[in-house]
Design brief:
single chain, 487 residues, alpha/beta, Rossmann fold, eleven-stranded mixed beta sheet, ATP-binding, ATP binding, ATP-binding protein
């Protein structure tokens, strides 16, 4: 089971969901004229996915800093820090898995490009141990990856464009999933836009932009003019994470608000007379007055690295004590959910981490509090793949096998326990296909190499009985399987 984010609904009222795991592998491009609802769409995506994935937002206008109020994002004010500091902060962001908003509001255009390039390069250059999934959202991406030169220097433009290219072209292997929004595809560098496999196209008016949007969505040219008729917050979506065919949707509501001026009308104040207006605007003051500041003065620079080091999630609430009856019911639900996970087609060959996500979703549906952690789930998974009944798993004899399995690598424990269970019950030695399935692979050759490795580690002893088959003995426990065919 995958994580589905409801982005909105179709005109018929059907929900449109976005496969979050698929999005992290295939990236997303959003296009729409100013006022079409791009920022609203991005806010909906980030709010709905915040509990599931770490987020980094490159925010040129300060629209997304309100995410900190509800979802705990750390706001990094780029104007208060050097480029070297931003590089170090990006590295710590990845290592500590903190969701952040890089606020570029009030920074000159060239400095915005340099700061964004430094921060994105810091994310990209993090050590391999920190390559966990991160959704990197870049609003107004045409500023950071322009199709042609602008007001900024060539050096700043090249640095920013290189960082954006790394994000979209090479970031997937490092866990970086780019989500970029732009007003016009024509303004965005082609090598950046071309790497997205998911598209959400909003209202646009220029013929060239409508034609290009229709081409990306696989629509006929005569359908391109429909983009002029899209309302605010209405988009046409296509991609492996969204839909295999173009689908129109209206983006759902959001929980946080933008700080920018909205489209609501604000009537001007009433003045008693034109003379009073003249006095307010044109009357010369007695002394020249300094122009009012554009905004309140910024606080002194803070130490981002210190803030990241001090960051810690809220302390978990300790689970309440369960009665024996409640514990038995919880264990039964966990066992049923694990069986449902493993009954799916091909589930035996999926990584344990993905199976664990499916397992947690099923427990959440059943309203199970305090679900098992990943280490406990791996032990349950190994027992289930080995065919161990719960009552046998609690026995002293089986616990001896489990303790010996703890010394083996995680991926080898399931195979060892499978053979140990067969030896404990005196069953025939499992064939290579069964061992490969417990190992999570279709390759019989890999299963045989694992058996040879277990024998080298002195965990098993394998021998052939002429005319009967293979026998596996568990070292240290004195258990031995009956002869069984290898193939």
């Amino acid at each position: 089971m995958t994580i589905g984010i409801e982005m909105g609904r179709t005109q018929a009222g059907a929900p449109v969901t976005l496969d979050l795991e698929e999005l992290l592998s295939t990236r997303l491009l959003v296009q729409g004229n100013s006022g079409s609802g791009k920022s609203h769409l991005l806010r909906r995506l980030m709010e709905q996915s915040a509990p599931w994935v770490q987020q980094v937002v490159v925010d040129p206008e300060g629209d997304f800093v309100t995410l900190a109020d509800r979802h705990g994002h750390l706001v990094i004010d780029a104007a208060a820090h050097s480029e070297a500091m931003l590089v170090r902060a990006a590295d710590r962001v990845r290592r500590h898995r903190v969701s952040v908003v890089l606020n570029l509001e009030g920074v000159e255009v060239e400095a915005q490009l340099r700061c964004a390039a430094a921060f994105l390069n810091g994310l990209f250059d993090a050590d391999r141990d920190a390559w966990t999934p991160v959704m990197v959202v870049v609003d107004e991406a045409q500023l950071f990856a322009p199709a042609m030169g602008g007001d900024a220097s060539d050096e700043a433009r090249r640095a920013s464009l290189g960082a954006m290219t790394n994000l979209m072209c090479r970031g997937r292997k490092r866990g970086l999933a780019g989500v970029i929004a732009t007003q016009r595809l024509a303004k965005l560098a082609k090598n950046v836009a071309a790497e997205a496999s998911n598209f959400m196209m909003g209202r646009t008016f220029l013929d060239i932009d409508m034609a290009r949007a229709a081409d990306l969505l696989g629509m006929e040219r005569r359908q391109a003019e429909s983009f002029r008729d899209l309302g605010r917050g209405h988009f046409v979506a296509l991609g492996p994470a969204l839909s295999r065919r173009p689908i129109a949707l209206h983006v759902g509501t959001v929980e946080t608000a933008t700080r920018s001026a909205g489209p609501a009308l604000v009537p001007p104040p009433s003045l008693p007379s034109a003379e009073e207006a003249r006095e307010l605007i044109l009357a010369a003051p007695e002394e020249p007055a300094a122009p009012p500041p554009r905004r309140a003065p910024r606080p002194p620079p803070s130490d981002i690295l210190a803030e990241l080091s001090r960051f810690s999630p809220a302390a978990p609430v300790p689970p309440r004590a369960r009665t024996a009856e409640e514990e038995a019911g919880r264990r039964r639900i966990c066992e049923e959910s694990l069986r449902q996970v493993l009954d799916g087609e091909g589930e035996a060959f999926r990584p344990a981490s993905l199976l664990y996500q499916d397992f947690l979703v099923r427990l959440r549906i059943r309203e199970v509090e305090d679900p098992p952690g990943l280490p406990e789930f791996r032990r349950m998974l190994a027992d289930a793949r080995a065919g161990i009944a719960p009552e046998v798993a609690e026995g002293e004899e089986w616990q001896a096998a489990v303790s010996r399995a703890e010394a083996l690598p995680e991926d080898a424990r399931g195979v060892f326990l499978l053979l140990a269970r067969a030896a404990l019950d005196g069953l025939p030695c499992p064939d290579d296909a069964s061992i490969a399935r417990a190992y999570g692979t279709h390759s019989v050759g890999r299963a045989r190499r694992l058996l040879a490795w277990l024998e080298e580690r002195n965990a098993l002893v394998l021998r052939e009985v002429r005319g009967q088959g293979r026998v596996a003995a568990v070292v240290g426990l004195g258990w031995e399987t009956a002869p069984g065919p290898a193939a």
